[in-house]
Amino acid sequence: MVARPDKRALKAVLIDLSGTLHIDDTAVPGAQEALKKLRNASVTVKFVTNTTKESKRNLLERLHRLNFDVQENEIFTSLSAARSLIEQKNHRPLLLVEDSALEDFTGIDTSEPNAVVIGLAPEHFNYQTLNKAFRMILDGAPLIAIHKARYYKRKDGLALGPGPFVTGLEYATDRKASVVGKPEKTFFMQDARDDVGGAQNAGMLGILVRSGKYREGDENKISPPPHLTCDSFPDAVEHILQNLL
C-alpha cells in the first residue's frame, strides 16, 4: 500500500489489492471497514494492482463479492498499462496471460504476432509456448513484461510469479524486457519490494503490510526503506488517519 504526500498534507492513497485487501476470495480481516474510514477522510483513494490472472471486470466482481466499496474507474492495473503500450507501439502481441485476463485486450490484433507480452499464465508456461516466445524474441520481437514479480500469495501458499519466466527468456535471448507494471515509476505516475520500493522510487511514501506475500525481513530488502511496516491494511489506515492527514 502506498501514499503520496506533499509538504502540507497527504492528498492521495494508492492501495494494492491482492495481499493487502484480499487473498484470492478471502478479505483481509477488517479491511472493508478500514477502507470506509479512509474514504471518509479528505483524501483521494485509488487502487493499483499487478494482477494479471483476471480482467479488471472479474477483479471488480471479486471485490464486490467481498463487500469492498470500489468503482471500476478507481482501479489501475498492469494489464491496462500493457494495453496502452501495445496500442502506442502498434504491436500485435503473443499474449502469455491467463484466459480470464484476455478480456482486457479485446480488439487488439494478435494475428501474426510481432511482440511477446508476458504476465501470469500458469496454463501457458509450457516448453512449447515459451520456446515460441524465445524464437520470436531472437528474431527481433520486443519482450514486454506486464510485471516481474518473483512470487505471489495463493490460499495454498506462495506460488511462482511471471518474473522467473521473464528472466529466463531474457537470459536465453540476451535481451532485456520492457516492464510496464510495478515497480516501474511510469506505472505509478500513470512482490513486497516491487510494490513499496517502486512507490518510493516514484517519490511516494511506502507502507508495507505483513499480509499477503510478505516474508520475514522483506522490509530490509527495500531501498529506500518503507516509511512504515504494519501488520495489516487496517493498521496502515489508522497510521494514515492519525499521522499523515
UniProtKB/TrEMBL annotation:
Keyword DNA repair recorded: no
Ranges in a coiled coil: none
The entry's keywords: Magnesium, Metal-binding
Gene3D superfamilies in alphabetical order: HAD superfamily/HAD-like
Cofactor annotation: Mg(2+)
InterPro entries, A to Z: HAD-like_sf (IPR036412), HAD-SF_hydro_IIA (IPR006357), HAD_sf (IPR023214), LHPP/HDHD2 (IPR006355), STAS_dom (IPR002645)
Transmembrane feature ranges: none
Residues of the signal peptide: none
GO molecular function terms noted in the UniProt entry: metal ion binding; phosphatase activity
Superkingdom classification of source: Eukaryota
Gene Ontology CC: cytoplasm
Residue ranges of every copy of the STAS domain listed in the record: 1-86
Any Pfam family matching the protein: Hydrolase_like
Family named by the database record: Belongs to the HAD-like hydrolase superfamily.
PANTHER family: 4-NITROPHENYLPHOSPHATASE-RELATED, HALOACID DEHALOGENASE-LIKE HYDROLASE DOMAIN-CONTAINING PROTEIN 2
Protein name, UniProt field: Haloacid dehalogenase-like hydrolase domain-containing protein 2
Originating species: Oryzias sinensis
